[in-house]
Amino acid sequence: MRFECWDTAGQEKFGRLRDGYYLGSECGMILFDLSNRNSYKTVPIWHQEVINITGEIPMVVVGNKKDKNTYDKSDTRLMALKRSYGVLYVEISARLNRDYEKPFLHLCRVMLRAPVNFTEELALLPPLDEAEARKQEANLREADPTVFFNI
User: Fold this and answer.
1) Which of 85, 6, 13, 20 is nearest to 54 (CA)?
2) Which of 114, 148, 115 is nearest to 134 (CA)?
3) Backbone angles phi, psi at 142, to 5 degrees
4) How far is CA 139 from CA 132, 142, 145, in A?
5) 26 CB contacts (<8 Å, ≥6 apart)?
6) What is the Cα–Cα distance from 101 to 29, expressed in whole angstroms?
7) Residue 17 burial (C-beta neighbours within 10 Å; 0-12, 13-18, 19+)
8) Contact, 27 vs 57, CB < 8 A?
9) Which positions ≥6 away from 116 have C-beta within 8 Å?
10) pLDDT of 73-112, one tens digit each?
């Protein structure tokens, strides 16, 4: 199975452009920032947009930045996401390469209606532990603060 992934940008100014990316989609992934409470609010909007354009398709709701301790795991909106929409909810850390494969694996299983496992390791940098990640970020900031992006 091959995934073509499009980052459709959550900014409202690009709202009408997103519809074109949804056309012909066979599955979807809605990603939001766990460390930004306002991003939870947009998940229902995106979900409805996708349904309006594509109809019912397999979807996964993904909370990113699981590595940050700044989000409240008992937040009622976050708890509602776990029970809403009849889709899988997954928390990942893109920065630490943790659980990023779970939404793709779930979508493969749903699309193929069969058990699926990855047979090869993906060619990624090894995951960093939290202390090492902070150290590398500090080194980047010291080297040239105009080049550092907080992802």
Assistant:
1) 20
2) 148
3) -70, -35
4) 11, 5, 10
5) 57, 58, 111
6) 12
7) exposed
8) yes
9) 1, 105, 108, 109
10) 666 666 666 666 667 888 888 888 888 888 988 898 888 8
Name residues whose C-beta falls within 8 Å of residue 133's C-beta, 6 or more positions apart in sequence.
67, 95, 96
Domains of the chain, each with CATH number or no CATH:
12-118 (3.40.50.300)
Q: Give the separation between CA 84 and CA 8, rounded to whole angstroms.
A: 22
**Cβ contact 66:133 at 8 Å:** no
Token pair in block for residue 41: 């609010």
Q: What percent of the chain has pLDDT over 70?
A: 68
- What are residue 117's DSSP bridge partners? none
pTM for the whole structure: 0.69
Nearest residue to 19 (alpha-carbon basis) of 48, 44, 43:
48
Q: What is the crossing angle of helices 15-22 and 37-54, to 10°?
A: 50
CB 45 within 8 A of CB 18: no
8 C-beta neighbours (distance < 10 Å), count = 20
Better pLDDT: 35 or 141:
35
Three-state secondary structure call for residue 64: strand
Whether residue 62 contacts residue 29, with contact meaning beta carbons closer than 8 Å, is answered with yes
